[in-house]
């Protein structure tokens, strides 16, 4: 598929010209991102749309990005070498795997490279199978279908869309992937920024060679050398004029969010790569309409997790309530909607995202 922006679609550069270079084009696109200037945790306001690009791409490169070989990056290109749709730092792709699984991976390459996308995937042997499939079944030459790019973790440049004077990045392990393009752009533009990058040990954290190019701006902290970092350590040097971008495990993002609330004027933009904890959950029952089977959803478990034990082939992706992959129709019962992407009309039609939403009490009969 060949996608090319028209001259009218290309944003003008800082001086109003249309023939700007790529770096300025990326800056101008990033500056147009609309953000709220309050604490933002796990933004879910951007969801798949009918006009998302769906591209057939080929794997043209594979590289091991961590010494323990558990992280592999893939370079994806158009089979006919056409340019790909543009993207901004923080964006991700929905990757349709050969098995039919749909998984989301952050873009960690260069937005100025219009010929290729790069993603990186950590192998999780006891996960949902998607990462293992990427590692074992997508060699160079493989064809894959992707949707997007889409951005649920938008980045705004200080002075060009953000009132912050400086930036502070926090990345945990594979959470470095959406942060890398942000840091590169900040470096290119001469913005004041810093980063704390954490992981179990240096063998497990990816892209250390690229991180080294950022010099003293980045502090690498590993658990085996320094112990588990606390929020104060992760936020060292952050003041009221700082925008914080954080991506990593739930305990880390939660601790950072709790601490940032006590620092007036700090922007927090955060993305987690695992499901959020269930708050104030109550147990309820789900009935599968097709068979009459009834299962109980525990108070501390998602409806999706319970469903997958009986229906392991059910599609899902983000597990955070923004990608819609797990959407089902409620035939009976009253759901408690805990997402922010379905419309009132969707709710009225009985649609529900089982990865985060629950029941208000009693049994839900689902069109399953």
Structural write-up:
It contains 9 helices and 21 strands. By secondary structure, the chain is of the alpha/beta class. The strands form 5 sheets. The protein has a 6-stranded parallel beta sheet with strand order 1-14-13-10-11-12, with helices on both faces. Strands 5-4-7-2-3-6 form a 6-stranded antiparallel beta sheet, covered by helices on one side. A 5-stranded mixed beta sheet has the order 16-15-21-17-19. Strand 15 (about 285-290) and strand 16 form a beta hairpin. The protein starts with about 20 loop residues before the first helix and ends with a strand. The model is unreliable at about 1-50 (pLDDT under 50).
Strand order of the largest sheet: 1-14-13-10-11-12
Task: Please state the average pLDDT score.
Answer: 82
Which shape, going by the Cα principal axes? Answer: globular
Instruction: Profile the largest sheet.
Output: 6 strands, parallel
User: CA-to-CA gap between the ends?
Assistant: 34 Å
- Given as residue ranges, the uncertain stretches (5+ residues, pLDDT < 50) are 1-51
The string of secondary-structure elements, in order, is HEEEEEEHEEEEHEHEHHEHEEEHEEHEEE
The helix content, as a percent range, equals: 10-25%
Q: Structural class given helices, strands, pairing? A: alpha/beta
Q: Strand content of the residues, in percent?
A: 25-35%
Radius of gyration: 21 Å
The helix tally amounts to 9
Strands, count? 21
């Amino acid at each position: 598929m060949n996608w090319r922006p028209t001259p009218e679609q290309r944003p003008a550069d800082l001086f109003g010209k249309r023939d700007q270079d790529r770096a300025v084009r990326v800056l101008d696109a990033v500056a147009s991102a609309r953000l709220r200037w309050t604490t933002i945790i796990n933004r879910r306001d951007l969801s798949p749309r009918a006009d998302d690009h769906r591209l057939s791409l080929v794997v043209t490169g594979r590289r091991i990005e961590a010494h323990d070989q558990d992280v592999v990056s893939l370079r994806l290109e158009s089979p006919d070498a056409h340019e790909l749709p543009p993207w901004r730092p923080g964006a991700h792709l929905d990757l349709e795997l050969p098995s039919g699984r749909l998984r989301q991976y952050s873009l960690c390459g260069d937005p100025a490279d219009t010929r290729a996308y790069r993603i990186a995937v950590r192998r999780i042997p006891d996960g949902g199978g998607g990462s293992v499939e990427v590692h074992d079944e997508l060699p160079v030459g493989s064809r894959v279908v992707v949707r997007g790019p889409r951005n649920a973790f938008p980045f705004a440049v200080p002075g060009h869309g953000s009132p912050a004077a400086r930036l502070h990045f926090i990345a945990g392990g594979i959470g470095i992937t959406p942060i890398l393009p942000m840091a590169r752009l900040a470096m290119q533009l001469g913005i004041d920024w810093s980063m704390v990058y954490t992981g179990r040990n240096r063998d497990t954290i990816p892209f250390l060679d690229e991180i080294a190019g950022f010099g003293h701006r980045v502090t690498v902290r590993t658990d085996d050398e320094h112990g588990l970092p606390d929020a104060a350590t992760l936020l060292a040097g952050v003041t009221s004029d700082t925008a914080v971008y954080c991506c990593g495990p739930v305990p880390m993002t939660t601790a950072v969010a709790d601490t940032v609330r006590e620092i007036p004027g700090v922007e927090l933009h955060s993305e987690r790569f695992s499901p959020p904890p269930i708050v104030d959950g109550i147990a309820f029952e789900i009935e599968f309409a097709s068979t009459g089977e009834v299962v109980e959803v525990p108070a501390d478990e998602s409806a999706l997790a319970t469903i997958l034990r009986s229906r392991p082939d059910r599609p899902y992706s983000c597990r955070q309530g923004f990608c819609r992959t797990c959407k089902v129709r409620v035939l009976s019962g009253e759901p408690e909607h805990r997402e922010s992407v379905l419309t009132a009309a969707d709710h009225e039609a009985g649609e529900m995202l089982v990865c985060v939403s629950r029941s208000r009490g009693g049994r839900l009969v689902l069109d399953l």
